[in-house]
Amino acid sequence: MSAAKQPKVWILLADGEHARVVEPSAREGQFHTVHVLHGPGTQAQHGGASRSDPHAAAKKHYAESIARELDRHAQAREFDQLTIVAPPHALHDLREALG
Questions:
Q1: I want to staple 10 with a disulfide (CB 3.0 to 4.6 A). Which of 32, 47, 69, 79 is the partner?
Q2: pTM of the model
Q3: Phi-psi region of 47 (alpha: psi -120 to 50; beta: other; left: phi over 0)
């Protein structure tokens, strides 16, 4: 009987301003950082962003940039499974933006 290849699991830890990807290490119960994902920053106002709440618009734009980066890694087949850990507002924006 041959051993099945373990899937490469990435875990995205994100909020509206920070994100990093970790994966389980060889030592049980431990993780190591694979990527620190940097969005475009929260200072800029972008087209289509709500002028009434620029902070919320910046967080949404950040989630969209993180999603684009994750999509690139997925297309490169750098992971097999992705788990997202984020507060509800960030999770909503990320899920809408992921390809």
A1: 79
A2: 0.78
A3: beta
SS3 labels along the chain: CCCCCCCCEEEEEECCCCEEEEEECCCCCCEEEEEEECCCCCCCCCCCCCCCCHHHHHHHHHHHHHHHHHHHHHHCCCCCEEEEECCHHHHHHHHHHCC
What is the C-alpha separation between 19 and 34, in angstroms, rounded? 11
Q: Which residues contact 36 (CB under 8 A, 6 or more apart)?
A: 19, 20
> Which amino acid is residue 40, in one-letter code?
P
CB atoms within 10 A of CB 5: 7
Whole-angstrom distance, CA of residue 63 vs CA of residue 77? 21
**Residues 18-46 pLDDT 10s:** 999 999 988 888 999 999 987 665 444 44
